[in-house]
């Protein structure tokens, strides 16, 4: 049986198998140990790991809460599932956990950025109730021709669903709040 539990410092020495996927953004931006420790110390409730019965790390999610007023939201910084454990619903389980934490923090919505070309991920997030809020031009520094979708899902606090009304024009990374 899969166990979803809080990420620990020891997990940083065990999760390389999860990050070996070319679509995992942690490879592209080369997150360092300090980056993971920052998330673990500031937003531990948003940093979860899925562990197999044999002790393998199957996947993880890391995020944070940020913003002000009606822009207070949960943010998915990274979601990755090892190729050996895909198509088991782990990503949906990890996302549901992050959304639950965001609900407890009275966030209005959850957002994430995903490569426009990553159709599998865009389709998965759409199935999970996310919609494209806006397109961010040249979002990925390692690939200036690659845009991102800013996808959002309104939470119960946003009764009018204002946070997910799509913008009609793309933005640039420097225009993000």
TrEMBL record:
**What is the species of this protein?**
Cordylochernes scorpioides
Cited PANTHER family: N-ALPHA-ACETYLTRANSFERASE 20
> Which top-level group of life is the source organism from?
Eukaryota
Protein keywords: Acyltransferase, Transferase
Q: Does the keyword Acyltransferase apply?
A: yes
| Pfam families hit by this protein | Acetyltransf_1 (PF00583)
Q: What is this protein called?
A: N-alpha-acetyltransferase 20
Catalytic activity, as annotated: N-terminal L-methionyl-L-asparaginyl-[protein] + acetyl-CoA = N-terminal N(alpha)-acetyl-L-methionyl-L-asparaginyl-[protein] + CoA + H(+); N-terminal L-methionyl-L-glutamyl-[protein] + acetyl-CoA = N-terminal N(alpha)-acetyl-L-methionyl-L-glutamyl-[protein] + CoA + H(+); N-terminal L-methionyl-L-glutaminyl-[protein] + acetyl-CoA = N-terminal N(alpha)-acetyl-L-methionyl-L-glutaminyl-[protein] + CoA + H(+); N-terminal L-methionyl-L-aspartyl-[protein] + acetyl-CoA = N-terminal N(alpha)-acetyl-L-methionyl-L-aspartyl-[protein] + CoA + H(+)
Documented EC number(s) = 2.3.1.254
Q: Which SUPFAM superfamilies match?
A: Acyl-CoA N-acyltransferases (Nat)
Annotated InterPro entries: Acyl_CoA_acyltransferase, GNAT_dom, NatB_acetyltransferase_subunit
- Which parts of the sequence belong to the N-acetyltransferase domain? 2-156
The family note in this entry says: Belongs to the acetyltransferase family. ARD1 subfamily.
How is the subunit organization of this protein annotated in UniProt?
Component of the N-terminal acetyltransferase B (NatB) complex which is composed of NAA20 and NAA25.
Return the broad EC class: transferase
> What segment(s) does the record annotate as region Disordered?
158-177
**Any idea what job this protein has?**
Catalytic subunit of the NatB complex which catalyzes acetylation of the N-terminal methionine residues of peptides beginning with Met-Asp, Met-Glu, Met-Asn and Met-Gln. Proteins with cell cycle functions are overrepresented in the pool of NatB substrates. Required for maintaining the structure and function of actomyosin fibers and for proper cellular migration.
């Amino acid at each position: 049986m899969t166990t979803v539990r809080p990420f620990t410092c020891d997990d940083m020495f065990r999760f390389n198998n999860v990050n070996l996927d070319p679509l995992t953004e942690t490879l592209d931006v080369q997150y360092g140990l300090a980056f993971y420790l920052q998330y673990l110390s500031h937003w531990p409730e948003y940093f979860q790991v899925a562990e197999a019965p044999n002790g393998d790390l199957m996947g993880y999610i890391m995020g944070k809460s940020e913003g002000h007023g009606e822009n207070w939201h949960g943010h998915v910084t990274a979601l990755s599932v090892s190729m050996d454990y895909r198509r088991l619903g782990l990503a949906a389980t990890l996302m549901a956990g992050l959304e639950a934490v965001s609900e407890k923090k009275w966030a209005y919505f959850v957002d994430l950025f995903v490569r426009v070309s990553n159709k599998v991920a865009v389709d998965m997030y759409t199935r999970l109730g996310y919609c494209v809020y806006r397109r961010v031009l040249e979002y990925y520094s390692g690939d200036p021709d690659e845009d991102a979708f800013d996808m959002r899902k309104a939470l119960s606090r946003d009764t009018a669903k204002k946070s997910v009304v799509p913008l009609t024009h793309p933005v640039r990374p420097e225009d993000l709040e």
